[in-house]
Amino acid sequence: MKDQNSPVVFFYVQHLLGIGHAFRAARVARALTQSGFKVHLIWGGTTVSNLDLTGLEVKRLTPVRAGNAEFSELVHEDGRTFTDQDKNFRKEQLISHYREVDPDILITEAFPFGRRQMRFELLPLLEAATSSSKKPLVVSSIRDIMQEGRREKAVRESLDAVHDRFDLVLVHGDPSLVRIEDTLQGAGEILAKIRYTGLVTPHIAPIGKAEAEQVDVLVSAGGGAVGFQLMEAAKSAMAFSKKFPRNWCLSAGTELPETDFQKLCEDCPTGMRIVRFLPDTLQAMQACKVSVSRSGYNTVADLLRAKCAAVLVPFTGGRETEQLKRAELMAAKGVALMIHPDELSPQKLAETVDQASETDRAKTSLQLNGAIRSAEILLAEFQLRNS
C-alpha cells in the first residue's frame, strides 16, 4: 500500500489575464501542504507579487499570458507572439515535470472548463496521466460561477473530458449561494463527480486600530489588468462624496500597465493616495469604512471575510459574465451594493459609497473554508482509492 500520509500532488496553474485564479489555487495548494500532501505547483503564468507560496515546490514553465481581454492570442511577457515552436517547448517542459514528479494526484485549475487556449499542452498531459501504469487521481479545480454563453462545441468538449479523463471536479463554492448547473450548461451529466468545497477565502486575524491601514474608502482592482476604468472614476469620485471628502486610497494593481498607472497618478487629489498594491488588502478592507472593487472570486472572498461595507463594480468586458452574476448574488444577499459598469460615473460612485456606509455590514452563513475542505475531500478520496 502507498504511504497515505504524504500523497504527491501535481497542481497545474495558469493565469492568462486576471490573477484571482492564481491566489485561489495557491490557497488550496497551501492547505494541501498543511494537511500532509507533497505539492508540486506547476506555474505557467507571469510572476505575481505578494503571492504566498510557502511550503510548495514550484516548477515554472516558460511564462505566457493573454494578449487581449478576448483571450484570442497568447503572448510572452514582453508581448511577443507565442509561436507553435514555443508551445511545443512548453508542452515538453510540462510532460518532463510530470514524469519527474510521478504524482498520486493531478489537479488542473479551471481546465477543462477554462484554459482552452492551453489545450496544446493540457491534452497531452492528461493523456500521459491516464495512460500511465500509475494512474493518478485526476481532479479539476473550478470556481463556483462559470462563464455563460459558451459555444455548444466547447461545452461538449469539456463534458467529454470530464467523462473520459477526470475522477472529480472540485467546485469552490457553496451550493446555497449558487449551484454549478446554474451557470454551466450540461452540468447534470457530471453531477456524480462534483464535490462542493465552500468558498476559498483567506483566514483573517483581528486587528487593532494602531495596526490597520487607516483609510475611509479603499478602492482596489485586484491584479488591475481590467481596473483602469474603475480607478479613473474613483479618482474623481472623492470630490462628490458628502461623507468621505478625503482619505481615499486607490490600489491600482500590479498588472495595470505602467503608462496607465502613471496617468492615474497625475494630479492626484489632495486627501487621496494612489498605490500599486497594499501589503495586506484583506487587512485594509477590514479596517476601511467602505470598500469599492470589482467582483472577482477572490475579491468577494476577501470581502466576506472582512465583513466590510462594500460597493461592487463588476467587469463585463469581452465575453465576461461571471463577475456580473457574482455581484448580483452578493447584492441580493445584502452583502454589497452594486453599480453596473454601464452606469459607472464619479457622481454615481460617490453616491453609492455614501449609501454603503449607512448600511449594516452583512453577516453571511456561507461556507468560507474551501481550501481546508478541498484538502479533506482529496485525502478521503485518495485513502478510499488506496485502501
Describe the fold and architecture.
It is globular, with a radius of gyration of 21 Å. The chain contains 11 helices and 15 strands. Helix 1 (20-34) packs across helix 11 (370-385) and helix 2 packs parallel to helix 3. A hairpin with a 7-residue loop joins strand 4 (65-66) and strand 5 (74-75). The strands form 3 sheets. It has a 7-stranded parallel sheet, with helices on both faces. A 6-stranded parallel sheet has the order 12-11-10-13-14-15, with helices on both faces. The protein has helices at 20-34, 84-101, 119-130, 152-165, 228-237, 258-265, 281-287, 297-306, 322-333, 346-357, 370-385; strands at residues 8-13, 38-43, 57-60, 65-66, 74-75, 105-109, 137-143, 168-172, 194-196, 217-220, 248-251, 272-275, 290-293, 310-312, 337-338. The termini are close together. Helix content is 35%, strand content 16%. It folds into 2 domains: 8-200 and 368-385, 3-Layer(aba) Sandwich (Rossmann fold); 217-357, Glycogen Phosphorylase B (Rossmann fold). With 387 residues, it is of the alpha/beta class.
